[in-house]
Specification:
Layout: H1 2-9, H2 33-47
Length: 74
């Protein structure tokens, strides 16, 4: 319950009937990547218990043709 409360404080929709918690942010030419990164890290830390030694796995099905600049490094 503490994790859901933390996500709620960050602005997430905590109604999980759709199977996940949601938050929408505008991403345009003036996007503030620092604030998006801060939000992501706070959600992972406060809501999901991730710490510096937590191994994260990502699934990005909408990015099948990643540019070479996004090659995995580890």
């Amino acid at each position: 319950m503490r994790a859901v409360a933390a996500l709620d404080r960050l602005g997430f929709d905590t109604n999980d009937r759709a199977g996940n918690f949601r938050i929408d942010r505008a991403v345009d030419a003036a996007v503030d990547f620092a604030s998006l990164t801060d939000l992501t890290l706070r959600a992972l830390h406060d809501g999901y218990g991730a710490r510096s030694d937590t191994k994260l796995t990502f699934n990005a099905p909408f990015a099948p043709n990643r540019p070479a600049a996004c090659a995995p490094i580890s």
